[in-house]
Amino acid sequence: MEINYRAAADYISSKTGGNPETGIILGSGLGMLADMIRDAVVIPYCDIPGFVRSTAMGHKGNLICGTLKGKPVLAMQGRFHYYEGYTMQQVTFPIRVMKCLGVKNLFVSNAAGGINSAFKVGDLMIICDHINMLPNPLIGKNDDVFGVRFPDMTRVYDREFIRCAEELAALHDIPLKKGVYVGLTGPSFETPAEYAFYGRAGGDAIGMSTVPEVIVARHAGLRVFGMSVIANEGYHFADDFTNDGGDVVKAAERAAEKMCLLFMELIAKIG
After folding, report:
1. Which residues lie across from 71 on neighbouring strands?
2. What is the rounded CA–CA span in Å between residue 104 and residue 222?
3. Number of C-alpha atoms within 13 angstroms, CB side, residue 238?
4. How many C-beta neighbours within 10 Å does residue 237 have?
5. Contact at 8 Å (CB) between 95 and 217?
6. What whole-number distance in Å separates Cα of residue 261 and Cα of residue 160?
7. Whose CA is closest to 84, among 238, 200, 187?
8. Which residues fall within 8 angstroms of residue 115, CB to CB, at 6 or more apart?
9. pLDDT per residue as tens digits for the range 121-145
10. Per-residue model confidence (pLDDT) at position 162
11. What is the pLDDT of residue 1?
12. Which residues contact 17 (CB under 8 A, 6 or more apart)?
């Protein structure tokens, strides 16, 4: 195990003393779940050895340790992206640190463009599979401490977690979509032709994150649950249509309350 993962894990442990079982990555506009964490210890990324800065809009750049519904959690209030100029090792560094800390489950969220014409702005989509169009973060020498050279990706997103989330959503009368997330590099938004292309390829929503972290999490044996907030509609283009990063964050913020409720209830149920 490379020393830098252990150094980061030891630093976090020295500040928290906890033993979190669930890690959470909060994407664009979805940081409000962090405000619901009790007994919170807030650690800026810049203080953690090996962590880089989060420069994306809507990403505060803090690691928050505490409890949700009495369950110990470790939440990233913002993530790192390949389009920020970071290497894939830097983008996924926190996932392996979580593994070192004993995290067993990873919950990921993002704001995404809807390319399924049945999706509307504000919909919540459970990620049931993905299409990776980013560099694979496992390229290079395999770290056998974390996982095998060729990890299976047949069932990346945990079927039991998905079933529980659907049950909880029905209980709270929260409509859910389910679909395939396409991960691209960004930072430019997709053209109408690209939206159409990835829709024909089997995608339902599209974004610039999530997939690298998920691949590394599965390589390390973590169980994964993912959810996208549909923040724009990439299937019809009026003459005045434009993609705007600020609008994406605002749309995600409007839907965040429902997503936060589901994350909290699911963490309580599986913990």
Report:
1. 68
2. 5
3. 4
4. 13
5. yes
6. 18
7. 187
8. 182, 195, 196, 198, 199, 203, 204, 205, 206, 234, 235
9. 889 999 999 999 999 999 999 999 9
10. 98
11. 44
12. none
- The type of residue at 116 is N
Query: Quick one: tokens of 90?
Result: 């830097």
pLDDT digits (tens, 9 = 90+) for 194-237: 999 999 999 999 999 999 999 999 999 999 999 999 988 877 66
Task: Show the low-confidence residues of the chain (pLDDT under 70).
Answer: 1-3, 28-30, 56-59, 236-245, 247-249, 251-252, 271
Which of 170, 240, 205, 213 has the alpha carbon at shortest distance from 81?
213
Instruction: Say what the pLDDT of residue 199 is.
Output: 96
Alpha carbon 78 to its chain centroid, in Å, reads 9
By the 8 A CB rule, do 24 and 76 touch? Answer: yes
Helix 211-219 and helix 88-100, axial crossing angle in degrees, nearest 10: 40
Beta strands in 50-119 (DSSP E): 62-68, 71-77, 105-114
The identity of residue 270, as a single letter, is I
CB 101 within 8 A of CB 12: yes
- Report d(CA 146, CA 89) in Å as an integer: 14
